[in-house]
Every structure is written in C-alpha cells, then in structure tokens.
Amino acid sequence: MQCPFCKAPDTRVVDSRLAEDGTQVRRRRECEACGGRFTTFERAQLAMPNIIKRSGDPEPFSEDKLRRGMESALYKRPVTAEQLDHAIENLKRKLRASSEREVHSQQLGEWVMEELRDLDHVAYVRFASIYRSFEDVNAFREEIERLQTLPSAEERRSQLSLIEESTGNRQSRAGNRKS
C-alpha cells in the first residue's frame, strides 16, 4: 500500500487485529522509506440488496439515505455517533443476512424502528410517526402505549442470556444422563 506521507509504493504491516465485531481487519502499517506509521481498515465488499419502495420500484440500498433518516429522528437526542454507526452496521448486517436480492422498504423500516427503540424512545416515536403516517394525536398515544409494554433493550438482552443458560443447562443434563 502506498504511504500517505511520502507516496512511497511499499509499506509493511506492523500489526493486524480484528475490529468491529470481526467484520473488519485493522492493520497498523509503517513506511519503509520515511518511517511514517498509519492505520488501514479492511472490510469485505459485499453486495447489498435493492430496496423495493412502496410504489414497487426497486432502488439501490443507500447507506447515506438510511443515515440521514436516522439522524433526523435522533436530532438533538443524547445518542453518540458511535451508537448510530453501530445501529447502521446492525441494519446492514441484517440486510446481507437476509440473502435476498431485494428487500421491501417496509421490512427495512421495521428494522430501523427496532434499532431506534434500543437507542432512544423519542427518536423511535419520531421515526414511527413519519414511517407509519400518524394522522392524529391518538396514533401517537397508541404507539407510546405500545412502546411502554415492550421490554427494554436491557430486558431483552437479559432474557436472551437466560434462554442461552437454560439451553446450556439442558445440554449439560443430557450429557450427564449419557455418562
């Protein structure tokens, strides 16, 4: 890789490690000509599915458009750029994991609302009001009441760990019976 400082054609890798939950490789490099050090990130280039709009027209997935929509919902809310980046990575992971060539915008909208619900309830209601075309105050009230009945992100994570523990206990008991 070319050195960004002196433009020498060769640099050597000093250190490599996984980053972003194993979806990237972080490489620390050093220029053999000038001794300058810099970091590069390597990520697999995977095709994203097209998004089928409500009109039925397909549109290429746009991370910028997704980010703008989420940023508008998160405007002046206490959510960091890193948290937003992580949510967008989760959404991109879900899109790729669907292994479909096309995903309906309604499905993507539901996934966005799940991510926003975990980040900030106000942002979730803002996004839902536009996404679901709320007509009046009652629609807001119903959505807020529904939101209050759902488990929080922490509760869902703790429930998941309980499920994993009980599955592990069943497997260990089954192993003990075989002995």
Count of helical segments? 6
For the record, the count of structural domains works out to: 2
**How do the strands line up in the largest sheet?**
1-2-3
Helix/strand-derived class? alpha+beta
**End-to-end CA span:** 56 Å
Order of helices and strands: EEEEEHHEHHHH
Shape: elongated
Question: What percentage of the residues does DSSP assign to strands (E)?
Answer: 15-25%
Structure overview:
- The protein has helices at residues 63-73, 81-97, 105-119, 121-131, 137-149, 153-178, and strands at 11-19, 24-31, 37-43, 50-52, 58-60, 102-104.
- The protein is an alpha+beta fold and 179 residues long.
- The chain has two domains: 11-43; 50-150.
- Strands 1-2-3 form a three-stranded antiparallel β-sheet, with no helix packed on it. It has a three-stranded mixed β-sheet with strand order 5-4-6.
- β4 and β5 form a beta hairpin.
- α3 (105-119) packs antiparallel against α4 (121-131).
- It is elongated and about 70 Å long.
How is this fold's topology laid out?
Blueprint: E1 11-19, E2 24-31, E3 37-43, E4 50-52, E5 58-60, H1 63-73, H2 81-97, E6 102-104, H3 105-119, H4 121-131, H5 137-149, H6 153-178
Parallel strand pairs: 4-6
Antiparallel strand pairs: 1-2, 2-3, 4-5
Helix pairs in contact: 1-4, 2-3, 3-4, 4-5
